[in-house]
Amino acid sequence: MNLDRTLRSRLTAAGQEFLSDWLDQLAPRKREHLLRQLDSIDLDLVAALGRGEGLARPPEGALEPLPYVPLADRGSDSEIAALGTKALQQGRIAFAMLAGGQASRLRYDGPKGAYPIGPVTDRSLFRILTEQVLRARRDFGALPPLAITTSSTTDAATRHFYESQNCFGMDRDRLVFSCQGSLPALDDDGRMMLGAPDRIFTSPDGHGGAIVALERDGVLAGWEDRGVDVVCTFQVDNPVLQVVDPEFLGRLLAQPAPIATKIVLKTDPAEKVGVIVRQGGRPAIVEYSELSAEQQAARDPDGQLTYRLGSIAVHAFDLKFLRRVLATQLPLHTARKEIRCVDASGQVVRRPGRKFERFLFDLLPQADDITVVEVDRGTEFAPLKNATGADSPETVRHALSAQYRRWYVEAGKPAPPDDPIELSPLVAMGPADLC
After folding, report:
1. CA-CA-CA-CA torsion sign (138, 144, 149, 155)
2. Is 130 within 8 Å of 137 (Cβ atoms)?
3. Which residues, 6+ apart, have CB-to-CB distance to 412 below 8 Å?
4. Residue 331 lies in a domain
5. 50 within domain boundaries
6. What is the pLDDT of residue 177?
7. Residue 415 falls within a domain, yes or no?
8. How would you write the chain as a 3-class SS string?
9. Which pTM does this prediction carry?
10. Deepest of 160, 275, 335, 408, by most Cβ within 10 A of its Cβ?
């Protein structure tokens, strides 16, 4: 069976002519499956990526430390928190939970957000974080809109999980799901790689792609039409985070800078978190792997690390700024990976390839300045990443239980004698709720 001449020409123009012969060899059903997938792939983009076009340029310019709001100054200005409170009351804040990842490093079959992490009840990450947003209706008299970003591998399972849990009580008109795009991986010759005989290997297009999807799907435009001014983004893997934080939001609203971001102070030079800096005169996040050993170890006269502003991937954006920047596509970054694929004989092998992702932090250099706000590592940063050891279910459950117990102590109340303990966000979000 001959391929359509137009498709054959498009494959050749994209440097993928090998797929013409491959398709001719497939059984009709598998051939049709692969043809449907190819129809959804931007072959012009694939051709450009094969030529090395459209990729992010290596960062340039000297690194400089950025000023930040230290933890000791948080809460010192009641007018700042009042700004955030008023915006929440007026429905001007929306939230986006970036939840496209699978839990492969956790050895869990399903979306990472569905992972059971409650110290006592096994509440999922999704439930804990969604209930924080839901709690805002009681605290501020308005329920903020919430978007859950997914990927092609997690979208159906995530939607089903929410439906099976009655969306944790969220109003359906305030909750939206948005599936980020996927991009094919290329081998060293610029050819797409087959994940199966009838399937091109693809992977999600990064956390930047999740934000692009919100614009593509009209979510951001819809929020703007409803009077939203600020979008706060956060990752699904950090259940101790204070998601709805009036003081943090007020910091953005009080300054001309269109971005605010939360950080923890690094004390270990080798800690694997991105670092907020000024690079070439622009705000930036530099991956820990991109810092030289000398830069990682550099210290100020007071002994603190010079580049110590560790990103916890929580950002608040002025919505108009965000939409303006997204009008021009975020660049793609290349990651070399060993990819499980099918070779020319149909055998499953592992070969080096290139994955492509968009990074959310490419938004930062588009701003003249950003507001950097320190948070307490012990109370807002306990990410779930690994099956064992650091950042594992054991450490995260311990952090959650310790947080709940600390609230009892600060409220002057006796904590439950059992260990571990757990509190729903709908019951308590701090010691004041236990008084």
Report:
1. positive
2. no
3. 435
4. yes
5. no
6. 98
7. no
8. CCCCHHHHHHHHHCCCCHHHHHHHHCCHHHHHHHHHHHHHCCHHHHHHHHCCCCECCCCCCCEECCCCECHHHCCCCHHHHHHHHHHHHCCCEEEEEECCCECHHHCCCCEHHHCECCCCCCCEHHHHHHHHHHHHHHHHCCCCCEEEEECCCCHHHHHHHHHHCHHHHCCHHHEEEEECCEEECECCCCCECEEECCEECEEECHHHHHHHHHHHCCHHHHHHHCCCCEEEEEECCCCCCCCCCHHHHHHHHCCCCCEEEEEEECCCCCCCCCEEEEECCEEEEECHHHCCHHHHHCECCCCCECCCEEEEEEEEEEHHHHHHHHCCCCCEEEEEEEEEEECCCCCEEEEEEEEEECCHHHHHHHCCCCEEEECCHHHHCCCCCCCCCCCCHHHHHHHHHHHHHHHHHHCCCCCCCCCCCCCCCCCCCCHHHHC
9. 0.94
10. 275
% residues pLDDT > 90 (the chain): 89
* The token pair that represents 354 in the structure block: 């290139």
How large a percentage of the chain has pLDDT more than 70?
A: 99
* Residue 125, domain extent: 59-384
Q: At 44, which amino acid appears?
A: D
Q: How many residues does the chain have?
A: 435
Each residue's pLDDT tens digit, 273-330: 999 999 999 999 998 888 999 999 999 999 999 999 999 999 999 999 999 999 988 9
Where b means 16+ CB within 10 Å and e means fewer, 60-78 reads eeebebbebbeeeebeeee
User: What's the burial of 18, exposed, middle or buried (CB within 10 Å: 0-12/13-18/19+)?
Assistant: middle
In a domain, 244, yes or no: yes
The CATH number of whichever domain residue 145 belongs to comes to 3.90.550.10
